[in-house]
Structures are given as structure tokens and as C-alpha cells.
Specification:
mainly alpha; 399 residues
Length: 399
Amino acid sequence: MTPRGTRIRLAVGVWGVLVSQVFLYPGVEDIVVALGGDDTIQAGMWFLVAEFAAFVTFASVWGAVSDAVGRRMPLAAVGALGGAACYLLLTAVPTIGVPFAGVIVIRLVGGAATIGAFSLSITALADLSGGHGQNMGAAGIAIGLGAALGSVLGGWLADADPLYPLFAAAVTLVAVAILFLTVTESLPDTDPLRVGDVFTRIRRRPALLVPFAFGFIDRMTAGFFALVGVFYFRESFGLDAAGAGLALAAFFVPFALLQYPAGVLSDRIGRAVPVVVGSVCYGLGIIAVGIAPVLVLAIGAMAIVGALGALVAPATMALVTDVASPETRGAALGGFNVFGSLGFLAGFLLGGSTTATAGYTAAFLVVGLSEVGIALVAARAVWRISGSDPGPKTEIDPG
């Protein structure tokens, strides 16, 4: 299989994992009620938080194990099948009478499995030849298109029956597992390390904390939109689940379509401008969504925010692969996904609690200004580790 063919298959796999995940977002309120929870933003928050808590715990574990054993795709397939099994188990909850606390436990187990499929497929893309920006752009366009399609179809499915998104997610992950087993791997030509040694080498590269921090804030905004954004569009503008899904798609479609060219651009001009300047504009765009007085302006702002997010995301992921050594790439991208999942958790918790206490406008301000703040605080560090700064470079231990 050619590198291009492998890149396409892996991107389709990443796309499938995101589709399965986002199927649940537009109708999360209805799904939670069908599974025995309350129709409140807090119940929806904990339903989403459970999955991402597992993402945080297991992302680096999957990556380090794949680095140690020298295989990624069989592990990714196992993760996808585990996630599918948990979605199917959730569909049985109304019949077998599992309490909502049990639903949260199932979400935890499902998240622990699914993050393996997601993180390892992105790492396999990073293993391919070609510019890191190009490979991470392929991952980014898959993420964006998966989220766009999932948000639209998920809303329609939830309006038809709250359990349909769960069935659809399970079927999608089974197909993803089968696809992963057809992929020929292209791991770095390095000696395998023990899992403990992988984590030791990662800790010796403090420069990774810079893209990790951006990943945290960027994913926080995504988590914010996945929870608060859905409730915002439904309550403020009277949309149903399908309408809220289309509103999210206004963000995800440009976010998806522009990721690949943005990743290639970052290979040519460096990571600093897309990451720093893009983050400032992205944060201001989030605020614009929250203060838009009418639906059409809010949707337009969502589209602009999606385009700006596309500028930032692949450059940030590529910065991780620039800094990490080849033999620790799986753990490094796993660490990036840990920080990203923590960001999702923060987006759910911060967005949900701020909205409940101070309203939607305050929540959009807090999240938008957080994105602007990280860009201003970390700008100098990004310039240094990306090689764009004429001053002294950051020390990086070769391992």
C-alpha cells in the first residue's frame, strides 16, 4: 500500500471514531433522559465528563504500550471494538433497568477503549513519511468532517429516537475496527523501549508542554461547544436536536475542510503564526458567537470560528511530532490527547457551571478569553521551539 493510500485509510478511521462520538452530542439531553438521567445541563455534563475522564487516564497508556510492542493497528482495532460493545450495552439500559450511576460507569469503560482507537490512529498518521503538518492536517480534516457529519446525523437520529445515535455509534466503530486491521503500519525504524522508558523520555522533553497547553485550551473550547453550545442554540434560539446539530456543523465543516491546507501551510511557514495568531482570533470569534443577537449572526460566527480553529489545530499537533523523538511518538501524541481530554473536561465543567451560575454570555467570555490568554502567554515559547525565533533555542534532551 502506498503512503497516500495508508494516509487515506487512517484518516477514514479517525473520521469514523469522531463520527461515533459526536453522534451523541446534539441529542445529549434526550439521550440522558432515555437512560434515566435528568433533563438538566448538569446531567448532560456528567454523561460527557465520564467518557473524557477515561480519555485522560488511558490515552498515554495506549500510546506507550504501542511504542513498546511496536504495533498500533491491532491495539486500535481492540479499542474500537470495546467502544462499540459499550455503546450497545447502553442501548440495553432502559430494558434492564441500570441506574444512571451505572450508565456513567459504562461511559468510563467505553471512553477507556475508544481513546485507544482515536489516539493510535492519529499516531499511525504521524508515523508516515511526509511533512508532519501534512499528516496532522489529514488527521484534522478527518476529525472535523467526522464531527460535522456526526453532529448533523446525530441530531436527526436523536429526534427519531434517543437510542438511535447509540446504535449508529456502535456500528460505526465495528466498521472502523475492521478497517484498522487492513492498514499496513509504518512505524519508526527504532529499537522498541519498555513502557517505563517511554514515559521517562517524554518527561525529559519539557518543550512538549507548550503544544500540550495549547491542546488543552483548544479542546476546552470544543468541549464547551459540545455541551454548552448545544444547550445555547436550543434554548436561546428555540432549535430542536437536528437544528442544534446543524449549528454545530457550521463550525465543523470549515474546521474540517481547511485543516489539510492549513497543515501544509504550517510546513511551509512554520508553526508559530498559525498557532499564536490563529489562537487569538479564534478566542475572539468564540466571544462573538456568545454575544450574537440573532441566529444568523451566531451561525456566521460559528463558521468563522471553525475556519480559525482549522488554522490552529494541525499546526499544534504537528508541533508535538516536531519535538518528540520517533521512538516516543505514540506516548507524546497520547500525552497531547491526555491534555486535550482534560481540556474537554474543563470545557464541560467550566462551561456547565459558569452557564448555570452566570449565564451563556459570561460562559462564552470566559472560554474565549482563555484561548486569547494562552496565545499571549506562550507566544515566545512557541516561536522558540518552532524555530521561528532568532534568539536562543529551547534545550531539548535527545533522550
